[in-house]
Every structure is written in structure tokens, then in C-alpha cells.
Amino acid sequence: MKDKNWVKMRQHLHLGPTKRHEFVKQLIKDVTLLIRLNIMDYSLLIGVHDLNKGNAAKLRDTTLAMFDPRTTDIQQLNRLTRAHTIRKKVVHTDPVALDALPQGTLPPLPESMFQELRYSMFYREDGGILSSDQNDNPAQLIYYLGVIDILTPYNMFKRTEHVVKSMVHDGSQISAINPRKYGLRFLHFMIRSLDGYEDVLPLLDAFERTTYQEICREHRLF
Questions:
Q1: At 199, phi and psi to the nearest 5?
Q2: Distance between CA 127 and CA 114 in Å, rounded?
Q3: Backbone dihedral angles phi then psi of residue 141, each to the nearest 5 degrees
Q4: Total-model pTM
Q5: Which residues of 5-42 are buried (b: 16+ CB within 10 A; e: fewer)?
Q6: Which residue, 131, 161, 146, is CA-closest to 51?
Q7: How much is the average pLDDT of 23-29?
Q8: How big, in percent rounded to 5, are the helix, strand and coil portions of the chain?
Q9: Which alpha helices (DSSP H) does the chain contain, by range?
């Protein structure tokens, strides 16, 4: 579902105080990096697995697809060329349904997490983060979270799009806005999607007071 459907259906992420704070702190770090890279128009993809239902729908056999743009051959390119090449590979790579692959070629799903991810709160519960109540007690949903569509730069084309669309729409509501404004709007929406978000608002307030110059100075990539 899209964000409008999420709001209309009154959906929330159910994370207790500990996980809620860690989630927001990580999201702010991700947005900070994307602002530094001049990226906008990204989203948070949320997968939800209900432990009570398990694999009753047999999704692996009927629904799952494999997507592999094969980007291992671009390590020697400079950053801008590498980003452009990745975008092209993603656009021209089609997912392959697992049930359409020849017999015996079905790629095995990982039986265990990579060693470096086992201790991450965001991956340790069967590759996701287990929901919890307001007392940090485990609940029945596993969330799989990831920021996607992170390859759209705020270039001259997007600046022009912003000017044109602002003539007929509210400029603060269109996607083609400068990365800092987009990042703040993204954080506002995601934080208010949390059940019991009030206790993490100070983290958002602190980030809002950070200037673009401070972000660039404090979070250098090189």
C-alpha cells in the first residue's frame, strides 16, 4: 500500500520504547546521509510478517521473485559514474519469479543471517525487527524495513520540476523538493507512523535545528 492508504487505514509500526528510539536514530542517520548526497524522492519499504499466520500462504512457491542487477563489476568506477551505472542496471533488470526458474536451479534462501548482521536489532529476528508493546515485551509481527529509491539526485531537472509544479500545486507537498526539506517531511511522516511516537519527538526537534552546513561538515564521506 502507499502512504495515503497507510494513513487511511490508520496503520502504525508497533515498536516499544527501546526499539522505537533506535529506529528513529537510525532513520535520522540514513536521512542525514541522503541529504549529504543530494538525494530526494526516496521511501521506506515495510514488509510485515505475522507470526500467527506463518507461511500458510506458501509465498515462496507462488509469489517470491529474485531480483539481481549484478553490480559487482562497477567497483573501479568513480562515484558519479557508479551511481549512473547502478541506475541503468536496476532499470533494465527484471525480477524472475522463483516458480518460473528451471527445476533444480531454485536459489536457496539463507538459512542463517550473515555474521555481521546477527547482532543488529534490525535483522536479528529472522532477518527483521520484532514488534513490541509499550513495555518492550515481544509481539507477533516481524517488520522488514529498508529505505528504497535512493538514486534520484536533486539536479537541475528536479529543480525545474519543482518550479513548474509549484505553480499549480502546494510546493511543500510535491516530491521534487530540495533534499533537506524532503528529508524532514519524510522523518515527520515516519515518526508519526509509530505507535507512541511522542517520546521520540525530541530526536526530531534536534535534527530540525541542524543546518545543512552542519550536516555537510559533520558527516563527510571522505
A1: -75, -10
A2: 10
A3: -115, 140
A4: 0.70
A5: eeeeeeeebbbbeebbebbbeebbebbbbbbbbebbbb
A6: 131
A7: 95
A8: 45, 15, 40
A9: 3-8, 17-36, 59-62, 79-91, 156-166, 179-191, 201-208, 212-218
